[in-house]
Amino acid sequence: MSDAFRRFAVNRIAMIGLAVIILIVGAAVLAPVLAPFDPNEQFFEGLTIEGAPLPPNATYWLGTDQLGRDLLSRLIFGARTSLVVGVLANGAAVLVGTILGVVAGYARGVVGSVIMRFTDLMMAFPALLLAIALAAIFSPSLLIVALVIAMVNWVQIARVVYTETTALAERDYIEACRALGANWPRILFRHIVPHLVPTVLVYATLGIATTVLLEATLSFLGIGVRPPEPSWGNIIYENQTYFATAPWLVFIPGAAILLLALAFNLVGDGLRDALDPARQGR
Amino acid sequence: MRTLMIAGALASALVCGTALTSPAPAFAAEIKNGGAMTVTYKDDVATLDPAIGYDWQNWSMIKALFDGLMDYEPGTTNLRPNLAESYEMSPDGMTYTFKLRPGVKFHNGRALTAEDIKYSIERAVNPATQSPGAGFFGSIKGFEEAAANNGALSGITVVDPATVKIELSRPDATFLHVMAINFSFAVPKEEVEKSGADFGKKPVGTGAFKLREWTLGQRVVFERNSDYYEKGLPHLDEITFEIGQEPTVALLRLERGEVDVLGDGIPPARFLEVKGNPKNKGLIVEGGQLHTGYVSMNVTMKPFDDVRVRQAVNMAINKDRVVRIINGRAIPANQPLPPTMPGYAKDHKGYAFDQTKAKALLAEAGFPNGFETEILANNTDPNPRIVQAIQQDLAAVGIRAAVKTLAQANVIAAGGEQQGAPMIWSGGMAWIADFPDPSNFYGPILGCGGAVPGGWNWSWYCDKDLDAKAAAADAMVDPAKKEERTAAWRDIYLKIMEAAPWAPVFNEQRFTMHSARLGGPDAIFVDPVHIPVNYEQVYATDVQ
Amino acid sequence: MAGYLLRRIIQALLILLGVTAITFILLYLLPADPARQIAGRSATAATVQSIRQQLGLDLPLWQQYLRYLGNLVQGDMGRSYIQRTEVASLVWSRLPATLLLMAGAIVCELVIGLGAGIIAAVRRGRPTDTAIMVASFLGVSAPQFVVGILLLYVFAVQLGWFPIGGYGTFAHLVLPSLTLGILGGGWYSRMTRSSMVDVLRQDYIRTARAKGATGGRIVLVHALRNAVLPLIAMIGLDVGIFMSGAVVVESVFGWPGIGQLTWQAIQQVDIPVIMGVTLTAALFIVLGNLLADLIAPLADPRIKLR
Questions:
Q1: DSSP-based three-state secondary structure for A97
Q2: Could you give the CA distance from residue A69 to residue A75 in angstroms, rounded to a whole number?
Q3: Chain C: nearest CA to A250, how far in angstroms?
Q4: Between residues 208 and 267 of chain A, which touch chain B (CB distance below 8 Å)?
Q5: How far apart are CA B27 and CA B337, in angstroms?
Q6: How far apart are CA B422 and CA B399, in angstroms?
Q7: Is the pLDDT of residue B16 over 50?
Q8: Quick check: B538 and B75 in contact, CB under 8 A?
């Protein structure tokens, strides 16, 4: 394990990614200190006399939004929402998806069949609709958003893990282990799960980006974070049609999402290389 | 009143404004008939059945395909006979006799008779038709029974093939407006029976245009009805409605000359830029409209059961700022009626913006530290923005309102539950008048009749006294008493503002943008009854 | 094989049944009242009641559901509350556009994904690899509507290479397909690279190499065949992603497909249409999964059909 850590630590690209993540997490934690303004305050002087938002300027470094709020402050506070949803919801999805995928792929039989048929059902179910129904039934909150995302996202991971587990389980050496009477935890944790780690990591890292975007979609549907609370997703959604007249309102938060996703991807990639000794010497 | 389906339609609801003040347009002799135009819409065209269609999009399309006994002079709100050549009202206002115009034919070639008028109204009342407009015919004799059974109205008599007599059960000053409303438009029985529930997709009427093509989800094409009874109309040979066009994309195409009229209006995101561009001078027409955006407060829910709290809300909202946020596409409001509606109280000052006084009133009502509540709003731009502006103003006086933005139908459903919604911002679901009469803003949205489960009176405000006054005003059918009736309605709305179940915020202005090749007086482009334009009257300037 | 197929088809039908049941219950729980919606604002209580009866909305949930299923097996998905048109004909009229868009997107993502993935794997560790991987991250992380609007603005509005939205010709298809395909392309290039790197390191490739097979041949013949397996599984899953993505892409480009119909129905709470499009989407997703499972053994003989 320490080897892996060392390999990870010398991966320059991964370290850059990690630095970005730490930076964003830091900004989120220190938001009240860092943000120049109250993120929800609608400034009278934050709009032109005709009511148009201001482009980046000396007072509002990243400009203002349609209501005259400071975009920089909203971005800094929005990082909290995006991170909380991204990490919690995606984490839950990955955990559930991996467990069910491995169980289904390894156990097969009735258990595997039931799990996979359930994932089929969930896969066949358009996620958006589920979200809307939940919106109408529950009152919207951060927790509901995380829940909905986890409910939607675990399926994909379960399917991929299942496919890989199946392929792994059919390899000759696993069959041989079974024939030799190795008990299932040993086979699972020695011979199967380690091979899954790269895939799960790739999915977990990429999944954070998808999660942030899904959170944005849900915010837009009215079951995301309640306005005026900012998240990077709802900043984009609030302003998406203004891309031509006020591009900073779409492309700056868009860049923030990209940066966060990219950082998680780089770290995930680095972890993957570090954890899989076979990949040494690339 | 129809519901505004989307908020992009800030710029596309029923209008008076410039239209009311300008005289009926005189059409110059140099108009050449012919040519075509393209109109874009984002959403599918719902049914074109006049008994059913009830949104701002199909409302005017239906008017181009069908006609009623009455109509309005183009570009105005002045009633005039249409399929009727003339009409007579009995002195007591209980009986109307309409003489039909000779030589009117349906698109299938058959001549219109008085039977068709009777059939068409009864069809709208028949519950099997599922018409959202059945209730408009409530003053016709025999309505209750007809609405519960098969629609057969004892009050409508065919005197001879060219004469129809309609008896009322109560005097109704708005009755002639009802005869100009789409739900009363003439449909041919044989075609309705042939098409069944699909009549809305295969409409056959008497209008200036007839349907040529309908490709679901892509386009609807109208062509000239060469048998149209009004000679010289319509001016255009063809109108193509392109469906599924995002307003932003539609605007780009208009700038490129591929589109003539933006059905959904100028997208809010590009409004200032487009309006400020000198190239567009003369292409953007502005008009007032019969619309009010308001915050309803549920008077049956605490703490809005206290009139002082409701008044405080009225004083807390900075309406000028809200108007600025939507780029000045509205004017601040202080009463339910819009300025261009008869009965609007010009001198009424309303509740001036005064947060100190609002706080004092809240303290007096027992909320020195304010309270927590919830405000619902439609989730299409610009409504989430507007409601956040209102939220900040309310917070300034201590009212901490959580914002909940939902699809239109879900907001309406919550409003129809007695404990469903403490406050609702009406934008995006705002009412546009069915006809330019002050009574149209009362009944279902402020009267006792609407304050029932599933009703449309979201403030649940019900004053039996005012209901009686409203009924009395609508019984003033004598044209000589018109002023008196208008005054009676004015008083009713001022009384309502004392109780303050609404906080009126603004009246929207309508902006229509058209291509340079389209001609017609400005009033045609902000026609009070036709949205986005009066299809019959508009013409192409590039016809050779 | 025939037995397997039959079993899978039965499974697929059960899934669709499950989808109808869940959707039906969720939509039943929505607060909007369809009868009120149809009857309009000026309706009397009697009219509303009569409409409720005509639509069968006064029945208990299970009876309504059975009624829906009964109509469904006869091909009747009911009528739209808003448009009053048969849902089946609405869905049918919009299906070709969405299928075309999906086909375009699949081509885009395969071309992008396989192309970029193979190049990255072969050149792994070099600047080309890094550049491709960064680009794939960007493709995966970019919000679809931002990509769509950006493409529209640059290539249609500014450069005028493509029409500004609409439907009909090949030129109309390019930008929406690309928008929908970029996400998958990003995923695929990562997947391809990752499995190619694995495969290239495996013994039989080393053997082939030792036997003197040339680099290009190794990649194409040996490695690619094995790298395709994860992609096949992905294409099946993609149908679901497409169905959600279509909602965004079709509305940005004015593409008259199922996605647009879905968004419209959701906004209008047009329950029969929501049921119809959900079921249609589910049908295609199930077919996609089935197809993926059938094709997988062809790509990798080590997988057996069960």
A1: helix
A2: 11
A3: 8
A4: 220-222, 226-228, 238, 241-246
A5: 32
A6: 12
A7: no
A8: no
Which segments of B202-353 does DSSP mark as H helices, in order?
247-255, 271-276, 307-316, 319-325
Residue A87: predicted pLDDT: 85
Q: Which residues of B74-91 are buried (b: 16+ CB within 10 A; e: fewer)?
A: bbbbebebbbbeebebee
Q: Give the pLDDT of residue B464.
A: 92
Residue C168 zone, left/alpha/beta (φ > 0; ψ -120 to 50; rest): left
Cis ω for the linkage preceding C256 (within 30 of 0):
no
Measured CA to CA in angstroms, residue B3 lies from B9, B132, B242, B434 at distances of 11, 11, 22, 10
A43/chain C closest Cα distance in angstroms: 27
pLDDT at A1 over 60: no
Mean of the per-residue pLDDT values of chain A: 81
Q: Is ipTM over 0.90?
A: no
Chains that touch A (3 or more CB pairs under 8 A): B, C
Q: Which residues of C touch A136 (CB under 8 A)?
A: 29-31
In chain A the beta strands, taken as DSSP E runs, fall at none
Residue B313 CA to residue B303 CA, distance in Å, equals: 11
- Considering only CA atoms, give the Rg of chain B: 23
Q: Please name the residue of chain A whose CA is at the shortest distance from the CA of residue C30.
A: A136
Secondary structure (3-state) at B273? helix
**Beta-carbon separation of A222 and B404 below 8 A:** yes
Least confident segment among A114-123, A202-211, B326-335, C180-189: A202-211
Distance, CA of B388 to CA of B397 (rounded, Å): 15
Which 3 state secondary structure label does DSSP give B289? strand
- In terms of C-beta density within 10 A (0-12 exposed, 13-18 middle, 19 or more buried), how is residue C170 classed? exposed
Note whether B217 contacts C46, CB cutoff 8 Å.
no
Tell which residue, C269, C258, C275, C261, has the closest CA to residue C68. Answer: C275
Residues of A in contact with C144 (CB under 8 A): 213
Identity of the residue in C43, C46, C164 whose CB atom sits nearest the CB atom of B253: C164
Q: In chain B, what residues touch A228 (CB-CB under 8 Å)?
A: 388, 391-392, 403
Dist. CA C39–CA B135, nearest whole Å:
9
Q: What is the pLDDT of residues B128-141, one digit of tens each?
A: 888 888 888 989 99
Buried b (16+ CB within 10 A) or exposed e, A240-250: bbbbbbbbbbb
CA-wise closest residue to B214 among B46, B67, B51, B5: B46
CATH number of A2-29+69-279: 1.10.3720.10
Longest dimension (CA), chain C: 86
> How many percent of chain C have pLDDT more than 70?
85
Assess contact for C144 and C241: CB atoms under 8 A: no
Residue found under tokens 């053997």: C207
Q: Is C115 on the interface with B (CB under 8 A)?
A: no
Q: List the single range of A153-162, A200-209, B455-464, C258-267 with lowest mean pLDDT.
A: A200-209
Q: What's this model's pTM, rounded to 2 decimal places?
A: 0.82
Q: Among B216, B417, B426, B437, which would you mutate to test the C interface (most chain C Cβ atoms within 10 Å of its Cβ)?
A: B216
Q: Which residues of C touch B253 (CB under 8 A)?
A: 164-165
Residue A131, pLDDT score:
67
User: What does the pLDDT average to over A202-207?
Assistant: 76
Torsions phi, psi for B61 (to 5 deg): -60, -40
Instruction: Identify from A38, A54, A67, A225 which residue to disrupt to test chain B contact, counting B C-beta atoms within 10 A and taking the largest count.
Output: A67
Q: Which of C294, C193, C299 is nearest to C236 (CA)?
A: C294
Domains of chain C (ranges; CATH) run 19-73 (no CATH), 93-299 (1.10.3720.10)
Amino acid at C74: Q
Token look-up 């690899």 returns C129
